[in-house]
From TrEMBL:
The lineage of its organism: Bacteria, Pseudomonadati, Pseudomonadota, Gammaproteobacteria, Thiotrichales. It holds the Pfam family Cupin_7. Residues 1-60 form the ChrR-like cupin domain. InterPro entries: ChrR-like_cupin_dom, RmlC-like_jellyroll, RmlC_Cupin_sf. SUPFAM superfamilies: RmlC-like cupins. This is ChrR-like cupin domain-containing protein. It comes from the Bacteria.
Length: 68
């Protein structure tokens, strides 16, 4: 993600794992940086904002739904 990019509020139909490979992001108001890990439960909504250029690894068992 480029610095300042925003991925809107969304949720997964299954569990998701997010690893921050590089940079800093804000996920639902929580600042995460290189090496940090986040696990989300099924149906847990969140958004992502890149505070710096960032690379994330996201693994999910089901599809994602944007919340509008």
């Amino acid at each position: 993600m480029k610095k300042g990019a925003h991925y809107p509020q969304h949720k997964y139909q299954g569990h998701a794992e997010i690893m921050i490979l590089n940079g800093q992001v804000l996920i639902s108001g929580v600042e995460l940086s290189k090496g940090d890990y986040l696990h989300t439960r099924r149906g847990e909504a969140h958004d992502i904002v890149a505070l710096t250029d960032a690379e994330l690894f996201i693994s999910t068992e089901q599809a994602m739904t944007l919340i509008t």
